C-alpha cells in the first residue's frame, strides 16, 4: 500500500501508529506561556486515526508523538541492525533532519555489510555490488542516501535541514531492502516450491546454454 506522509490537518494519511492509510479526525487548541513581555502562543493539535483510534500529537505543523517522526514504516525484511538505525533516524527527524540523514547513511553502511561487503567504505561497497550485478536503480538509490548523508556530516550543496529531502531517504532505504532482500527471498521461496523434476529441467536447460 502506498505511504502517504502525515501532514497537519491532512484528512487522510498513513497512521504513524498502525501503518494503515486512513482518515483522521483533527482537534486543536491554543495555549500561551511566558510573561506579558515575552508571551509565546502556540497551537496544540491532535489527529485521531479512524482505524486504530490512536492519537498523534502535534505542535503547529510538527508531530511530537509518536516519536517515529513522519517516516514510513521500515520494510518488514529490513535486517535488525539496519532497522534500529532507521527507527532512531525517524525518531529525531522532526528535531534534526540533518542528524537523521547522517544516521540513514550509517544504516546503508550496515546494509552493505549485511549484503556481504566489508562495510568499511560505502563507496567501495556500492562499486563491488555493481560489479556483482546490482541493478542501476538500486545503485542510484544507494548513492542518493550516501551522498545526502555525507553532506549532513560535511556540509555541501544538499540542504539536509529540509525535512522533505530527508524524508525521501527513508523511502529509498525501503526500496533498497525490497530489491536486495525482500524480492529475492520471495522469488526464491516460490521457485523452491516448484516440483523437483521441473527444477531439474531448468538446471539442465541452463547447463546446455552455458
How many β-strands, per DSSP?
A: 5
Strand content: 15-25%
Number of helices: 6
What string, H for helix and E for strand, traces the elements in order? EEEEEHHHHHH
CA-based gyration radius = 22 Å
Rough outline? flat
Q: What characterizes the major β-sheet?
A: 5 strands, antiparallel
The share of residues in helices is: 40-55%
Mean pLDDT: 83
Distance separating the two termini: 40 Å
Instruction: Trace the largest sheet across and list its strands.
Output: 1-2-3-4-5
Poorly predicted regions are none
Structural class: alpha+beta
Would you spell out the secondary-structure blueprint of this structure?
Blueprint: E1 12-14, E2 21-33, E3 40-49, E4 55-59, E5 62-65, H1 80-92, H2 97-114, H3 122-131, H4 136-153, H5 163-192, H6 196-209
Quick synopsis:
The chain is built from six helices and five strands. It is of the alpha+beta class and 210 residues long.
Can you walk me through this structure?
There is one protein chain. The chain is of the alpha+beta class and 210 residues long. Helix content is 49%, strand content 17%. The longest helix is centred in the last third of the chain and has 30 residues, at 163-192. It is flat, with a radius of gyration of 22 Å. The mean pLDDT is 83.
Features:
alpha+beta; 6 helices
Amino acid at each position: 500500500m502506498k505511504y502517504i506522509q502525515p501532514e497537519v490537518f491532512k484528512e487522510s494519511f498513513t497512521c504513524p501508529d498502525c501503518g494503515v492509510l486512513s482518515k483522521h479526525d483533527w482537534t486543536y487548541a491554543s495555549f500561551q506561556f511566558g510573561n506579558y513581555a515575552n508571551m509565546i502562543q502556540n497551537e496544540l493539535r491532535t489527529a485521531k486515526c479512524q482505524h486504530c483510534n490512536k492519537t498523534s500529537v502535534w505542535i503547529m505543523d510538527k508531530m511530537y508523538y509518536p516519536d517515529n517522526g513522519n517516516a514510513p514504516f521500515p520494510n518488514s525484511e529490513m535486517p535488525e541492525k539496519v532497522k534500529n538505525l532507521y527507527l532512531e533516524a525517524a525518531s529525531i527527524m522532526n528535531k534534526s533532519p540533518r542528524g537523521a540523514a547522517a544516521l540513514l547513511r550509517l544504516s546503508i553502511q550496515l546494509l552493505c555489510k549485511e549484503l556481504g561487503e566489508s562495510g568499511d567504505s560505502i563507496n567501495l561497497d556500492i562499486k563491488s555490488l555493481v560489479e556483482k550485478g546490482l541493478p542501476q536503480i538500486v545503485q542510484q538509490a544507494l548513492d542518493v542516501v550516501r551522498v545526502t548523508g555525507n553532506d549532513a556530516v560535511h556540509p555541501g550543496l544538499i540542504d539536509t535541514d529540509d525535512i522533505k529531502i530527508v524524508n525521501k531517504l527513508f523511502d529509498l532505504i525501503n526500496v533498497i531492502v525490497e530489491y536486495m532482500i525482500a524480492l529475492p527471498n520471495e522469488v526464491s521461496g516460490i521457485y523452491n516450491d516448484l516440483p523437483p523434476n521441473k527444477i531439474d529441467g531448468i538446471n539442465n536447460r541452463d547447463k546446455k546454454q552455458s
